[in-house]
Design a protein that fits this description.
Largest sheet of chain A: 22 strands, mixed
Radius of gyration of chain A: 33 Å
Strand content of chain A: 25-35%
Number of strands of chain A: 33
Distance between the termini of chain B: 113 Å
Largest sheet of chain B: 6 strands, antiparallel
Oligomer: heterodimer
Number of helices of chain B: 1
Strand content of chain B: 35-45%
Chain lengths: 522, 219
Amino acid sequence: MRARPSHRRAQGGTLIMSLLVLSLLALVAAHTLRRVEPKLRMVYQTAGWQEARVAAEAGVDVAMGELSRNAVGHGMGSWTHWRQENNGVIGTVLDTTLSTVNSVLSLLGGPARISQPIFLDNLRVSVASGMDAATDVQLWAVYPDGSSQNRWFRIRSMATCSLPAQTYTAPSKLDAKLRRYSLRQLRPQLSADDVGLPMDVSNPSSSRTIEVLVEPIMPFELAILTKDAMSLSTSGVWTVDSFDSRDAAKSAPDGTYPGRTSPLVQENGHIASNLTAPPTSPYAALIAARGTRVRGIVATNGGDDPNTSDRENVSGAIAVDPQRVRSDFYRDLPTPNRPPQGLILPAPILGLPFVAGPEAAPTQYVVGGDLGGFSVIGPPVGKGAITIIVNGGLNVTSPIRIPPNTTAQIYVSGDIDFHSSEVNSSPGDSRRAANLQIYGEAPASAREALRAANGASITAAFYGPGYDIKFTDDVAWSGAVVGRTFEMLGGGTSGFHYDEALAKVGAPIGFRIVRYVEDVRR
Amino acid sequence: MIRAAPTAGFTILELMIAMVGSIIILGSLLAASIGLQKSFGASERYAETQIEERRLIDYIARDLRRAVGVSTRVPASLPDRFSGGDFDLVEGAELILTLPAYYRSNAPADTEYDKALPVIGTSGGRIDYGTVAGPAPPFVVSYRKVFYQPEGTLCFVREEDGVRECVVRDAGALSFQLSAPAGGTDNLRLSASFRADFSRTGGVVNVYDEVMIRNQRID
């Protein structure tokens, strides 16, 4: 028998030794990797938690967009894809849902009235990680006082973002308290609040809930608001200021403007422009104040260089408080739409006055062509309202007279020229801008005009984002104007006096969030 | 007679060469193993650090986003409204956030703790969260870096209505800074930094976030 050569045994020993050492190293590496990898996964998992919040805020954005489409102006939009529960059956949104008080929270302690909710169910949201994400959005209309015009909204958005299931790692105790990942298909809070189908986002998942309160943006919140250029008076005396016709301490005894030098004059004559500077020269004058004294905030959409103490966005701002010049303004200005039409009356003949109906049932007139000066007769008792739709222009060479107990809304599709007329400003008139609301219906592309000339005295609120507003010389206006542009030539000794009572007047032109909370406890 | 097979063997020189070779190889492997372990250990601490930093920033960002007031208190001074600049949350300092009311109770043991307040009408035709007594007052949440007895170590703690919770433990090497341009108080920059003692160069591990305060500040 031949003995095995000994050098082969030696080679085998080396191999075994090498394998042992390599195995040891592999064990060390595997052990360390096993400890490190979950932590790296946990870092990755936090992305799901972040994206759940982004998805919830996207749900709020969707609801805000729907409000802009369906809840501005008059009437109710279509609320496409939104649902509501009606007698236990989930179906499309009824026209009256958001305008009907479903419960009065005074039963719970507060006076607000709230509608039944409408909702978007399992709204798919794209998130950066590419994981599955869905959002449930609920929306209620809330009426804080007795007025059906003052409609706020409450939006609640709950988003769930799935986490990578194959690499899911249980978080540390401290992380779990913050992020609350769920291994269940449906989180209890969603189960409790979900009015539609259960979320079908795969598990594990992370959920977050955002709630916001939304207030309406009214058309006459500012003294002068333009989409484009604004150029004020060069007279040196013409002033923009404010008063409050509802408050005896902020107006003359009869509720009118108390006079330029009166201590009752207020500092809320805010003016603003959406105009923005071109990208090639972003810091430029967007409002030409031209020495006009503005007793309020002057705001533009950019134009101010944050690296300088000057206010580049407003030229000639010698009589403007620099602390009240801002450059962070923008507001959508939709074309006004007519109120829903009921019984239409023809325009009165032979110069007879228009007759207002009771506030709950305004009379509606349609004027075929241009309309000149006119008078309105209010109801003998109580408050009255009237809507006049002018399928032409408003060419006013004689006074417009609105009685104190009546609110007139005039919708005009053509040019408006007040010449030097008295408009709702004579003794016996309401002399309240809220009582004469004029809406220019021309779209932004039409370039219609609103003009007033030397000696005109106007108490009214005008909203026409397609109109170029031009005052020449001594024009006194109490109220508010919204137009495409505003230009004051000359100016005399008069001024523009914003009536703060207008802030709540008219139909909403948009919505803004006034309270943001995250439900972090449920 | 049969000859005995020759006995194979190593000379002393061969053995010495083999031993030296083995020592070099094993030594190299050992050194590599130690280096590898150090590297993996550093990776582990890096990942842990990132998690701690991320959690601290996420806690504060979550509260900042819904805050209606932001104040800071540097050591040995009174709280001051934060209106830009840099604020370091060091020991003795405090970040104080005022949050809008939303819950019926802020006591964790209360059954109403996680229930939202109803929406009520307020003066001026507005709405807010509240009760029959009117809008509910906002409440305060604060962040501090203190020695936290239950954890037995230096921690970043969050305090809400007198109830403390540890957000980050073993926070000795972790620092937090809140910053904003002067006068710009709505967009805030949050930064957490960890002094990397595991790094040969003594580098710092930073995590940043930027937060826009969603609510109008009332402070």
